[in-house]
Every structure is written in structure tokens, then in C-alpha cells.
Amino acid sequence: MEIIGHTRQLNLLRGFLKNNLFFSSYLFRGSEEIGKKTIALEFAKGLLCENKTFGGCSSLHQIPNERASFCLSCFDSAKRDFLMIDENFLPNQVIESDDEKAYGIDTSRAIIKFLSTAPSVSQRKVVLIDEAHLLTQEAQNSLLKIIEEPPANAVIILITDKPSYLYETILSRTLQIHFSLVSQQTIIHWLEKLVPRSPKSEVEEISRLSLGRPGQAFKFSQDKKLLMQFKKTVLQLLHFESKTIGQRQVLLKDFLETSSDLRVDMAVWQTILRDELLFSFNLADLPLILSKKRSMASGDLVKILKRLLTFSETAENFPATADACFKQVALSIPSC
């Protein structure tokens, strides 16, 4: 997917490449589905490229499949100097291991083994760790050693939307680049090119409901059922405010049975409450989801939002408690 927004961050990364300024470890942080991984991959290509071009030689629009058009590193289809760590990675791709999942101690050992050898075709070796917050404590401890004393010509890029899950010592030893949500107008301009036949009202709605995340906007534009399900979720969450406790008990049963991820739903709920709070402060041009003011008092909104933030953090740290956390919040909201 093409990169949407993040002009300042892109200029910074291109500047690093152009001026030959390299750090041994980077941390790309920001919300989900805003383009961190896409940008990290393009930056990694630039780090490996002999011409130090963001996105590699192919981004120069040279003739495809032409050996002379690419530097040796960009032509290397095996990507021998690049290691991608994600949910599909298996440590036995690099070392002897029986571990059948990524992000454990053997993943860190694989990274260390990969970086311990000299580059094959590039001037450096690059490791990209997607969803770095999934690294176990053992894995983080092991990885910290190589972050503190990196081999020559080694670069590690960590990507996360939950930096608080990483050790403070890792955070302090990486160059952190924060990626913000993308503006609605930027997403609208992109969607108008992506789905030119869609009505303007639909494009604007998708942009608004994507909450500043191009990845989510893309999914909504390609899957109308997903968009309708999201709108249904918003309406269900709003209904909790207008029902008695007994009625909420009935709504809860259906909601909990149909929700695909309560932690995501709680994040959406935070946005709804934020919108209501903005309306109560007469900031009607700032809400992301709601289009009109509701009747809950601002004091109650602040209390329930604080409560929701606390329980959302608990659900993130202990996923098995998500149902209980959601119920606690839903049953404690004052009826409108």
C-alpha cells in the first residue's frame, strides 16, 4: 500500500539517507494501521541500497527486471542482508530451534546470529521487528545486549503501537520516531483516487470512521460489510448510555457474543466518549465519529472515560479479563 501522510517523518528518514546519518537502532511508534510498517520497509530498502535511496533503486522508476537499473543490493531477490521478524517468522530459518512461534528467546538469538556475520551484498545488515511489543521478557533482555553493543554496520528497526510494553532500557537506546494519525482530508484525497466512483458522502464517512488510520480506511473501502459492522458497533456502544441496567445486561450478552475483539471495541468507545466531551465543550468541528451532541453531562463523561481508560489498559495487559472489564464499564455508565 502506498504511504499516506507522514511528510515530516519521511523527510527526516530521507535526510538520514541523503546525509549518510545512520543509527544502530530505531523505534517506529504510533497507532495501528497508520503506515509504520510500510515506511519501515521502504526505509530498510534505502539502508541497504548502494545509492541510499528511500525505497531502493526501484523507487527511481527505472526499467524493471533490468540488471543495470539496480544496485547489487536492490537486485538481490534473496534479500540476504535483511531479516523480517513478524508473526510468520520461525527461528529455525536462522538457527537450530524447536520454537514454532516468533518473539521468544530463540527469535532474539536468531537476530544476534544474523547480525554477527558480515553483509553479503550491501554495506550493512538490517533487521525489522514488527509488533516489537510481542517480544517476551527473555527475548527483550537478550536483544538489549545487541542494541547496547551493536555489531558494525548493523541496524535494527522496531515497530510498535504499544511502546510501554518494551523495556525502558530498550526505549532509551533507540532513536524514536513517532507517527501520528493521518488527517481526514489527506485520507479523503487518497480515497478519491483509490475509489473514484464512490459517492463523496461515502468517502467522507470512511475517512471519518477510519479514525486517522489509512489501513482501516482501505479495509472499509474494499469491504462494505466491515464498514457496516463498525457502524453497528458504534450504535451498540451508544445504546448502552440510554438503557437501564437491566436492558444493558441483555445488550451485553449479544455484544460479547458477536464482538471480534473487545479491546478494539473499547478503543472505539474511548473515541465516542471523547467526541461527546468535545461537543459538551462546544468544539463541534473536532469529533471523529459522532455528528451531534448527546445528553450525558461532561462530569459523567470524564469519570467514565477515565474508568474506560483504566479497564482498557487492564484488558490489554491481561486479555482474558477483557469481558469482565467491558462489563464493568458498560454497567457503570449513567443512563441518559
Tell me the number of strands. 5
Provide mean pLDDT, rounded.
Answer: 89
| Side-by-side strand order of the widest sheet | 2-3-4-1-5
Total number of distinct structural domains: 3
Task: Give the CATH superfamily of the largest domain.
Answer: P-loop containing nucleotide triphosphate hydrolases
Structural class: alpha/beta
The largest sheet is: 5 strands, parallel
Strand content: 5-15%
Q: Cα distance, first to last residue?
A: 43 Å
Would you identify the regions where 5 or more consecutive residues have pLDDT less than 50?
Answer: none
CATH class of the largest domain: Alpha Beta
Shape: globular
> N-to-C SSE series?
HEHHEHEHEHEHHHHHHHH
Helical percentage: 40-55%
Q: Over all CA atoms, what is the radius of gyration?
A: 23 Å
Number of helices: 14
CATH architecture of the largest domain: 3-Layer(aba) Sandwich
CATH topology of the largest domain: Rossmann fold
Written account of the structure:
- It holds the Pfam family DNA_pol3_delta2.
- One of its GO terms (biological process) is DNA-templated DNA replication.
- This is AAA+ ATPase domain-containing protein.
- The protein is α/β, with parallel strands linked by helices and 336 residues long.
- It has 3 domains: 7-179, 3-Layer(aba) Sandwich (Rossmann fold); 183-222; 225-332.
- Helix content is 51%, strand content 8%.
- The protein contains 14 helices and 5 strands.
- The chain has helices at residues 7-18, 36-48, 72-75, 105-115, 137-148, 168-172, 184-194, 200-209, 214-222, 224-242, 245-258, 262-280, 298-317, 322-332; strands at 25-30, 82-85, 125-129, 154-160, 175-179.
- A 5-stranded parallel β-sheet has the order 2-3-4-1-5, sandwiched between helices.
- Strand 3 (125-129), helix 5 and strand 4 (154-160) form a beta-alpha-beta unit.
- Helix 10 runs antiparallel to helix 11.
- The chain is globular, with a radius of gyration of 23 Å.
